[in-house]
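dumping these here so i dont lose them again. two proteins, back to back, each one seq then structure tokens. dont judge the mess
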Amino acid sequence: QVQLVESGGGSVQTGGSLRLSCTGSGDTLRDICMAWFRQAPGKERERVAGILTDGTTVYADSVKGRFTISQDNAKNTGYLQMNSLKPEDTAMYYCAVAKSVYGCPRRQSFYEYWGQGTQVTVSS
């Protein structure tokens, strides 16, 4: 089993920055995709960004150029640096892990492990 714990959420004004962290513990996983999803009230959960073990990254169009996903394999931790935040970025953010044979898919069902979520609120 794997446990994922997110941290770093909070409230910022438009244009501000936050860095989310996702730390994994439990079984050692290799060849994975670590992704960040978000879900705003009344909306479906969407994949924001993903990173494979080899460093390959993928982003949603809505966050390209503003968000950066990274990982520190030695610390079993992934990060999501969020800059130039907008009110529409307000959501609960979740990290999730999938086997990399699937790439970093958009569909939630490919992801086996999920964190509990961390709230990001951007005010105008």
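---- next one ----
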Amino acid sequence: VQLQASGGGSVQSGGSLRLSCVASGSITNRYVMGWFRQAPGKEREFVAGIAGSTETPRYANSVKGRFTISRDNAKNTIYLQLNNLKPEDTAVYYCAADRTTTQHMEFGAPMDYWGKGTQVTVSS
């Protein structure tokens, strides 16, 4: 299984970006997929997670109301819409997948698969 993230870039504060993560291989809707980020000098943190079912997505408190995660099971793809971006959102964003729950994803469960990151830079 490989995860390929894309869509990062540089925007000004208040701007928007849309990240995509395509999964190739044996990713089914039994896998939870999500996004993490790591800012310079900080630990990697959970951003958002989504199950393959109709379960409500889960978000970190810092991005609630600004970011939206969505999933297209037919395309094995997840998206992260980033709105009202702030300088503190600057980080490398990684997608991940695991046969777990979004709750476990949020609270640090090891992930089966990771993609290479995509850089998001927000200037003030």
